[in-house]
Amino acid sequence: MNRLGAVLLMAAAALQAHGRVVNVAEHGVVPGADATLALGRLIESLDGEEGVTLLFPKGRYDFHAENAKEAYRPVANHDNGLKRMVFPLFGLKNIVIDGSGSLFMMHGRVVPITLEGVDGATLRNFTIDWIRSFHAELEVVERDAGSAVFEIDPQAYPYTIRNGELLFDRYGQEDPIGANIVFDPKTRAPIYNTDAFALNSWKPVKASHAGKNRVRIEGGFKEEPPPVGSVMIAYGVHPTSRLCPAIHVTNSKDLRIENVAVLDAGGMGLIVERTENIALEGMKVTSSAGRLVSTRADATHFIGCKGTIQVENCLFEHMLDDGINVHGAYVPVAEYLGNNQFLCDISHFQQWGLTFGAPGDRIALLSRLTVLPLFETSITGLKVLNEHRFIITVATLPEPLPDVPLSVENLSWHPELVMRNNTIRENRARSVLVTTKGPVLIENNYFSSQMHGILIEGDNNKWYESGAVGDVTIRSNRFVNIGYSCDNRYPLLASPLLNETQHLGEGRYHRNIRFIDNLIESFNGNLVEARSVEGLVVSGNTMVFSPSYPETEEGPAINLDYCDNVAIGNNLAKGFEHPLRIARTDSENLDIGMNRGFDASVQPLRAVAK
After folding, report:
1. Are strands 510-516 and 324-338 parallel, antiparallel or unpaired?
2. Using CA atoms, how far apart are residues 388 and 393, in angstroms rounded to an integer?
3. Is 37 helix (H, G, I), strand (E, B) or coil?
4. Which of 115, 185, 498, 529 has the fewest CB atoms nearer than 10 Å to its CB?
5. Sign of CA dihedral 547, 553, 557, 561
C-alpha cells in the first residue's frame, strides 16, 4: 500500500473513533419498503456536521425515483439533464457510508450516489443494482442467411413491436435497439469478431413476432446474423443511453471506495470529475447471475483529477466500455477577445458543463494542428457563460499570438495513477486508457479485453481527452487474448489520435514509456504499437501463442512510427506460425537487441537514424 492508501485508512479509522455513527434504521431507512424519502431527510439533517458514519444493517434496501431529490446535473462522458439522486451528498466533510454487505436496489432512472464538494468520503461494503437493466439481452435461437430469431425474457426486458421496429420499455421510455454487440455466453465476453454480427443502425431492419417471447429480425446485419446460442446486447441511442451512472463524484477530495460492487448502471460504474486523491480497494463492477453484461459504459472513469488515483485488488468485467479511463480535457479556443481573454468552446457534447479550471491553475496553449504545446501560463479569471462556453483570462501570452487554431489544457489537474493486482476482462473496448502527465505505475494486473489492452492516446478532435504522458511503467502484467475484435489490436498502443486535418509536429507527443516483464498470451502475435513517442523501452516480455482463437496476422508484432530513443530487447515469443515482425517508420535512435522468436531479419539493429 502506498502513502495515500495508508493516509486514507488512518483518516477513516480516526473518523470512526471520533465521529457519530448513525444507524439508519432508527431514522426509518429499513428494508421492505421504499427507503428514498427517509434517507433523503436523514442526509439533509447532516448539514454542517462532520465525521458522520451512516450505518446500514445488512439487508436489501429499495430506492425509487419518485421520492428522490432532483437537480440539473452535467455529468462528464454521460448525457446531461435532470438527475434524481438517492444519496445526494453535497458539501459534507468526512462522511462514511457503510452498507454492512447490503444490497441497494434501484427502481427507475436514478443516480444512486452523488458526491459534490465533499471533503473526505468513504463508501464501503454494499452492492448497487437496478431492478431492471438499462440494456436488453436477446438470445439467438434460429438464423438463416439474412435473419435471426431472438428469444427475449419479457419480464427482464419488456418490449413491443410497432411498425416493424423493436422497442424496449426502460422505465417508461421506449428505446430502439440502437447500439448493439454480440456476446458469447460461454466466455461471458464479446464474441470473436463481434462486429461482423452487429446490426447497423442506419440500415433498414424489420422486426416481427416469431412465437412466444420470440422476435425475428431481418436485414441490417453487417456481415451475417449472429450464431445460434450467442446473445445480442442492445443498449439504445444517445442522448438517453447514458443517463444514470452508479456513482458520480465532482469537486471533492480524499475519496475512498472499498468493497463496493456495481452490478448494473445506465452509464458508468464510477465517474469522477475534478477530485483530488481517490483510492479504490476491492471494488467490483460485474454482472449479476442473471445477466451477461454489467454497466452500460466504463467501469471507472476519471477526468480532470489530481493527487493520486490508487486502484488495487479490483475486478472490472462484462462492461460495454472500458475498464478505467484517466484523462484531462482539451478545450478549443473559439476566439481571442483581446486583453488576455479567450472565448473557449467545449466541443464534445459529453464534456459540456465540465469544470475546466479556476484562478491559479496552470494551463497550456496548444496547436490544434499538431496537438503539441506552444506556451504555458496561468488562469487569473474564468467566467462560465453556459454549458458549452466560458471566457478565460490568463496572466501572460506570447508575442505575437501563434497564428494557428488553438486549444487550452489544464496542467495543474493531472493525477498520478497506481494500478496493482486488478482484473479487467470480458468487456467491450479496452482494459485501460490513460493520458495523464502524472507518473503512472501499472503492475501485476490481469487484462483480457476485446480491443487494446492499454491505450495511451490523447486527442484534440474527437473525444478531446488530453494528457500526453511523461512517465509510464507497465510491468509484470498478464495480457490474455487481447484484440479478439480482430482489427489490429495491441496489448499496448501509445499514439495521439489525429484526424485528416492534423499532422505530427517537430516534437514527439508521448515520453518515457516502459513496457517490461509482461506475459502476453496471444493469438495474433501483436505486442506494442507506438507513434510519436520519445523514450520507449520494450524489454523482458514473454509472448506465447494462445489457441483460444484462430491464429491471425493483423500487423507487425512491434510497430514504430515517428519514435525516438527506443530500446527493444530480451523479449521472447514462442508458438506462432507466422513471422513476428518489428516495423519502423521515420524513427531514430533505435536500439534493437536480440528478441527470440521474432523475425531475424530485423535484429540486431543499432542506432538507426531517421
Report:
1. unpaired
2. 17
3. helix
4. 185
5. negative
Pairing of strands 588-592, 605-608: antiparallel
CA distances from 404 to 177, 365, 462 (A): 42, 11, 19
The per-residue b/e assignment along 492-522, b for 16 or more CB within 10 angstroms, e otherwise, is: bbbbbbbeeebebbeebbbbbbbbbebebbb
Sign of the four-CA dihedral 226, 228, 229, 235: positive
Q: Evaluate whether 324 touches 297 at the Cβ level (below 8 Å).
A: no
| Predicted model pTM | 0.95
Pairing relationship of beta strands 558-561 and 528-531 according to DSSP bridges? parallel
Residue 146 has a CB neighbour count (10 Å cut-off) of: 12
Which residue shows C-alpha cell 477530485?
275
Pairing between β-strand 214-218 and β-strand 147-151 as defined by DSSP bridges: antiparallel
Specify burial of residue 25 (Cβ count, 10 A radius: 0-12, 13-18, 19+): middle
CA dihedral 384, 390, 393, 396 (to 10 degrees): 150
d(CA 134, CA 329) in angstroms, rounded, equals 28
Q: pLDDT under 70 in the chain at which residues? A: 1-18, 600-610
Whether 514 and 492 have beta carbons less than 8 Å apart is answered as no
What is the C-alpha separation between 324 and 326, in angstroms, rounded?
7
DSSP 546-594: -TTS-----S-SEEEES-EEEEEES-EEES-SS---EEEES-EEEEE--
**C-alpha 291, offset from chain centre:** 21
- Which residues, in sequence order, are CB contacts of 562 under 8 Å at separation 6+? 504, 508, 531, 532, 585, 586, 587
Q: What is the CA radius of gyration of the chain?
A: 25
Q: Which residue has the cell 453556459?
A: 386
- The architecture of the domain spanning 3-132+241-321 is 3 Solenoid (2.160)
DSSP for 240-268, please give it: TSS-B-SEEEES-EEEEEEEEEE--BBS-
Closest CA to 322 of 300, 338, 349, 343: 300
Instruction: Please report which helix (H) or strand (E) contains residue 8, including its range.
Output: helix 3-18
Q: Evaluate whether the domain defined by 328-410 bears CATH number 3.30.1360.70.
A: no
CB 78 within 8 A of CB 54: no
CA distance 435 to 326: 6
Other C-beta atoms closer than 10 Å to the C-beta of 305 total 27
Residue 183's beta-bridge partner residues?
190, 231
Q: What pLDDT is recorded for position 602?
A: 56
Kindly state the helix (H) or strand (E) to which residue 307 belongs, with its residue range: strand 306-312
H-run or E-run covering 465: strand 465-466
